[in-house]
Amino acid sequence: MNLHFNVIGVADSKTVLRWERFVLNEGGIDFKAVSGEVTVAASTGNGSINGRLLDPKGSGIARTLVTVIDTKGNSRTVMTSSLGYFQLSELPIGETYTVRAVSRRYRFNAQSISITNGNAVEMTMIGIE
């Protein structure tokens, strides 16, 4: 983040710079700002990733493996439902995950998802033929 100010006043004068309402990462991270310093609080709790795999025509892709990998390399894999839905829950918040899907017929671009609060993150992945 870069902040730019137009400074006015006489030489050697001082003015207090106060941070008052601002949001980091769409409000999902607990923090406090004191004397120009921002301290991020440790994240607690769990969230989930809910998603759906679709073919290029918009139909759900069934029985396809979806893998979620955290930044430490830990992974979990689930299979999509008959309509292409999947859910991975009990994922620690404050973490960024890479979501990958493997299908015999379609290719999927990996997506990066951050869980910043205990809510479910919704996503859709569209297969490429």
Describe the 3D structure.
- Helix content is 0%, strand content 43%.
- It has a domain at 46-126: Immunoglobulin-like (Sandwich).
- The mean pLDDT is 84.
- The strands form three sheets. The protein has a four-stranded antiparallel beta sheet, with no helix packed on it.
- The protein has no helices and nine strands.
- The chain starts with 30 loop residues before the first strand and ends with a strand.
- With 129 residues, it is mainly β.
- The protein has strands at residues 31-34, 37-40, 46-54, 65-69, 75-79, 85-92, 95-102, 111-115, 120-126.
The profile of the biggest β sheet is: 4 strands, antiparallel
Q: What is the third-level CATH name, the topology of the domain at 46-126?
A: Immunoglobulin-like
Number of helical regions: 0
Distance between the termini: 39 Å
Helix-strand category = mainly beta
